User: What shape does this take?
Amino acid sequence: MDLFSNLVRFLNLGVPFLQIGAVQLLFIPRALSFALPISLLFAAAYSLGSFYSNNELIAVFSAGISVRRFTAPLLVVGILLSVGLFFFQEYLVIDSYRQKNELSRQLLNISRSYSNTNITVRTAGGDLIYSAEYYNDSTQELSRLLILERNKSGNFLERIDAARAHWSPSASHWIIEDGTRYTLVPESSEIIAEAFSVIEDDQYNLSPGWFRRSGESVDELRYDEALSGCRLCGHRDSPIDGC
Assistant: This one.
């Protein structure tokens, strides 16, 4: 299925058959991980069904073997195969599948995009919440940005609605443009709205990496990598703070 879904694109791009074969060889472990559990389940069900349909279970039960004792080996083998399949997936399938995807992208001229849509991010302390409709990774720009500031109790302090914001590498913070700032006056509980053209504040220093689309598919991550999440941020060599 993987071959036929991409075969036309491979041929249109003039990809040599040896490289197409290399892609399929790298996909074999992944295909086995899909096929083995289903095939083993079918084999066990078919074998037990055959025993029942041919009245061979009568002989088994007549010999004093209970259903629990008769099926116990299947359960033990199933548990052992489940553990084995985990290590097979962990140390062979994931690496080969990752290599297969990288080779496929190279042959099909597919470039990864880390731009993202509908992102909501909270800082470690939870005092600032960012929400943006779109993040352009090539320009490091946020569109339709909302920033909500709260106190330690989670109560409202300030809100910024902006048309856009772009990251300043030299200042290491976001430059927010064209919007409205809503500020709470503690004494009167009144909210003051103030239009602005530009806001530059060091507190808005959340790294652009937090807004990027995941750099890796979960299918290409090992167990420890999926738990840590360090490769999901797209900064494989130098993970962003808090990743």
